[in-house]
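This entry is listed below:
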Amino acid sequence: MSAIGLYARKTAGFDERLARTVEVLRQAAADFGPGALQSTSLGVEDMVITDLIARHGLPIALATLDTGRLHAETLALIPRIQQRYGLAVEVFAPVNEQVVHFVRANGDDAMYRSVELRKACCGVRKLEPLARMLQGRTAWITGLRREQSANRAEVPFREDDGQGRVKVNPLAEWSWADVWHYVQANEVPYNPLHDEFMPSIGCAPCTRAIAVGEDFRAGRWWWEDSSKECGLHATHAEPGTAESESQASPLTFNATTGAPA
């Protein structure tokens, strides 16, 4: 069954949540103008935001990271966005010399050996190109939602990213059902890996399908007892703090239906 079939359902208050999201995006465009950027992971939440930007004609640029280790299915969404919406997606890749140096020193699969090496890999492949992506920007738009993990349970619509920019999280209050209801209602293109029980998709070596009953982000760096963050959203990841230590309850999946519990 597809992710739409499993998860999409309209729940009470959806229309109001959608209206608030559109207003958050409109206000970001008004407040920051060309300084605003959608930093899209090409995950389903970000595809919803891209659809809203296009649907409402908002002057917000799009950019993504190509780490060099993404699934082919993820990268295939870039031309689909361009074809569907007529929007350009600027792609930022890591500095090749830094990748070569890291791999020569640590190997292709260094991330499995320690949290420190995994974070160093994320630093080279994600954080450095993100810094270039955001250079000169005053605001960036993300697909963070409170339901995604305990670490993100307090995500606001707007926050200081700690680097002198505003981070805008227009889907902060959306549920997983909301996301897929919107995808179904508006025929939003999405990564087919979501149909294979991968709700959170990152680099191929660091992403697996989750089992029923597992945390929403359990498929990311599944071999670690960590906060399941790479540093892109540092304000929602306390170093050395496992998600299980938070009092907030992360999203899990029903063992019978596979739907969010």
Q: What stands out?
A: Residues 206 and 222 are 8 Å apart (CA to CA). The domain at 3-245 is CATH 3.40.50.620 (Rossmann fold). Strands lie at 36-39, 61-65, 89-92, 139-141, 158-160, 166-168. The first strand starts at residue 36 and ends at 39.
